[in-house]
């Protein structure tokens, strides 16, 4: 269970100071987007590899899907995906960053383990659900977030679940960055979806509410709060000024 005395260093006040209005510049120059046919192919591939066609699909959520699932689900439980860990290693040139000030987004990268939440998806209209999910999780080529079947350990034993993992061959893969560098990026980056600080704040606070403590994210949120405080004190950025 969550310790009652544990409080986030990163607050809504910090987030408000990073948040600003950013116009969506659209896909980066030269970027190729997935087509309807591409999404059809991904849905067909995932369904073809479905481990138990007669049972509901389990979806493994580790980040924004926890606080903004946007998908109907009928049950949820905590599970651990071993061999994968949360990492801010995806360069964001859009959404939560811009071309001139790229952000970082969190994905599952190889190594370690990740405690997250399993959602049971309804059996009805499954193809439409996966289409909606895939269009949310990846838009550009080459794909950054690869859908695949993961083994997730639960209290009742291992289950196969659909998850999204980092494509290390993507040009947007940032690799293993020092936590201090990640904090410096999240403390200033913002796109038309919001800031990196907001993304981190929502993720950590919702994980803690569910009794899931990620020590790496906990240290990161403290570093981001300290970085924002330092930037404000030094007057390095004009906060809350519209950009576009």
From TrEMBL:
Documented EC number(s): 4.3.2.7
Claim: Cell membrane is one of the keywords in the record: no
Pfam families: ChaC (PF04752)
GO biological processes: glutathione catabolic process
Any one GO CC term of the record: cytoplasm
InterPro entries reported for this sequence: ChaC, GGCT-like, GGCT-like_sf
Alphabetized UniProt keyword annotations: Lyase, Transferase
CDD domains reported for this sequence: GGCT_like
Lineage: superkingdom: Bacteria
GO molecular function, one term: transferase activity
Protein name: glutathione-specific gamma-glutamylcyclotransferase
């Amino acid at each position: 269970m969550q310790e009652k005395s544990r409080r986030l260093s990163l607050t809504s006040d910090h987030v408000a100071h990073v948040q600003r209005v950013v116009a969506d510049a659209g896909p980066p120059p030269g970027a190729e987007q997935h087509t309807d046919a591409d999404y059809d192919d991904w849905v067909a591939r995932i369904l073809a590899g479905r481990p138990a066609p007669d049972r509901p699909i389990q979806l493994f959520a580790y980040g924004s899907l926890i606080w903004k699932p946007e998908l109907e689900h009928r049950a949820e439980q905590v599970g651990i995906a071993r061999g994968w860990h949360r990492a801010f290693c995806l360069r964001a040139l859009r959404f939560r960053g811009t071309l001139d000030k790229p952000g970082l987004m969190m994905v599952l990268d190889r190594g370690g383990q990740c405690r997250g939440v399993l959602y049971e998806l309804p059996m009805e209209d499954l193809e439409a659900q996966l289409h909606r999910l895939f269009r949310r999780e990846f838009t550009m080529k080459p794909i950054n977030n690869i859908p695949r079947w993961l083994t997730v350990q639960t209290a009742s034993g291992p289950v196969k679940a659909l998850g999204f993992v980092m494509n290390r061959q993507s040009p947007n893969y940032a690799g293993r960055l020092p936590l201090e560098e990640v904090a410096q990026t999240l403390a200033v980056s913002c796109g038309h979806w919001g800031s990196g600080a907001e993304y981190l704040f929502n993720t950590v606070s919702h994980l803690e509410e569910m009794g899931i403590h990620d020590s790496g994210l906990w240290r990161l949120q403290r570093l981001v709060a300290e970085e924002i405080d330092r930037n404000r004190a030094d007057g390095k950025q004009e906060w809350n000024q519209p950009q576009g």
